[in-house]
Design a protein that fits this description.
25% strand, 177 residues, Pyruvate-ferredoxin Oxidoreductase, domain 3, globular, six-stranded mixed β-sheet
């Protein structure tokens, strides 16, 4: 089983990205997936977590991810010493940053950076980074194909949002690969 933990702030779309990955795996890759948030009565801007589990077998464990393979950080201000808790030794961090090397906490992990904020501002005109980070994760991990990621957006998002979010996925792939 592959487990992904998403760190974001309320309103950034972390749970949406988690769900899109689950849809891509479950509907378009014939895998089993769970996607779920972890938050209480938080407000817009408060730290939130989301999780995605993907496996070839049916997933029975519905608990939080405690040994993740990938950590997606949508806002690098959320990188604190506790962010490495519950990650596998070979976990990969995908960070929304244009200067990832400054995070001493992550020195023993693989770190991939993408300036998702600039990409979102350029394409959407708003700093909503979820699909850029989703695209980066898919490019780095190969958990699902780019085509499945695009299909999940076409299936799940409102028609008015599909074209721009698909463009973000494609551009995130280009930036990572």
């Amino acid at each position: 089983m592959k487990e992904i933990r998403w760190h974001g702030r309320g309103g950034q779309g972390g749970f949406t990205a988690s769900r899109l990955l689950g849809i891509a795996a479950g509907m378009f890759e014939e895998k089993h997936a769970l996607a779920f948030p972890s938050f209480g009565p938080e407000r817009r801007g408060a730290p939130v977590l989301a999780y995605t589990k993907i496996d070839d077998q049916k997933i029975h464990d519905r608990s939080e991810v405690i040994a993740c393979d990938y950590v997606v950080v949508m806002d690098e201000t959320l990188i604190t010493p506790t962010i490495i808790n519950g990650v596998k030794a070979d976990a990969t961090f995908i960070i929304n940053s244009n200067k990832p090397s400054r995070h001493e906490i992550l020195k023993n992990h693989k770190v991939i950076a993408i300036d998702a904020t600039s990409l979102a501002l350029e394409v959407l005109g708003r700093p909503i980074t979820n699909t850029a980070m989703y695209g980066a994760l898919v490019a780095v991990s190969g958990l699902v194909s780019k085509e499945s990621a695009l299909s999940s957006i076409q299936h799940e998002m409102k028609p008015a949002l599909v074209e721009k979010n698909c463009e973000i996925i494609k551009r995130a792939f280009e930036l990572i690969n």
